[in-house]
Task: inverse folding
């Protein structure tokens, strides 16, 4: 859950939104990240993101699948060129496609925060522009009862 509390009021908003809305925002954030870092130019990445937009579930990652090979090649190139942003984008692409949408939306936004000033406005728009809650405190996280987020540590501290 620490990935949520780092985003302050946007994290609190993500924590209370319906799962489907978070998935949609994660998809949009990942596409933004791919476009901004050039990963969307690779046919394997673009095809995977296009499939996700159409609602097609991607198969579990396979080490020899074209997308996995492409992402590993991008990681190697990023390491060689010391391109931290591109490396993070490749890691977040894998996380976004096969991991938790809650973690994906947060980490994609946090990665984007290193190179675009509009990341907060973009994230808020991708979440549907609902009113922002106040910046959450530990009691908020302790009282949170969303089965998709683990707030058990906070709940144990503040109940």
Result:
């Amino acid at each position: 859950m620490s990935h949520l509390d780092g985003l302050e009021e946007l994290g609190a908003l993500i924590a209370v939104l319906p799962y489907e809305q978070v998935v949609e925002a994660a998809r949009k954030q990942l596409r933004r990240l791919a476009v901004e870092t050039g990963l969307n130019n690779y046919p394997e990445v673009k095809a995977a993101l296009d499939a996700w937009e159409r609602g097609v579930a991607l198969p579990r990652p396979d080490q020899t699948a074209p997308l996995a090979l492409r992402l590993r090649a991008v990681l190697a190139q990023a390491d060689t060129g010391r391109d931290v942003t591109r490396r993070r984008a490749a890691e977040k692409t894998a996380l976004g496609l096969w991991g938790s949408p809650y973690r994906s939306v947060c980490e994609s936004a946090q990665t984007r925060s290193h190179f675009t000033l509009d990341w907060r406005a973009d994230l808020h728009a991708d979440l549907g522009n609902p009113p922002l809650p106040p910046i959450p405190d530990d009691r908020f996280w302790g009282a949170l009862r969303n089965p998709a987020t683990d707030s058990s540590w906070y709940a144990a501290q503040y109940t």
